[in-house]
Amino acid sequence: MIVLVIEDDPVLRHFLRRLLERHGMDVLLAESEAQGVDVVEATASPASTRAPSVVVYGEALVRGAPTRLSARIAELAPNLPIVTYAGATVQPARDGRGRRLTAGGPFDAEALVRSIVCAVGAGGESAATG
Length: 130
Fold this sequence. Notes:
There is one protein chain. The protein is 37% helix and 22% strand. The model is unreliable at 89-104 (pLDDT under 50). The strands form 2 sheets. The chain has a 5-stranded parallel beta sheet. It has helices spanning 10-22, 33-43, 66-76, 109-121, and strands spanning 2-6, 26-30, 54-58, 82-85, 90-92, 99-101, 127-129. The protein is built from 4 helices and 7 strands, in the order E-H-E-H-E-H-E-E-E-H-E.
């Protein structure tokens, strides 16, 4: 299984690569929406041996418009499943006395892996995890 991860945060991108590789997945990385679309476009040919089995990206990447990226990917590869994730990030509190979680709930890495496997097994249905 080849997973295309589209993530602009280099730390999260590295974490996702390691997580998915530990679960036996091959990982392609893209640093932006545009780069992710370019990868899908370049590998959309049936002859491509590096075509992703699934695309994974964070909802924060698309700044509230996840359907735009999903629609573009669907134009290029209509049966390619998409899994999105959301999650909290830890930031210093304004008063400097600790750390707080921002909106979005905790990131569940294992739920993400299960969603990816399920999306690929479902034969092209999109999935979301939180």
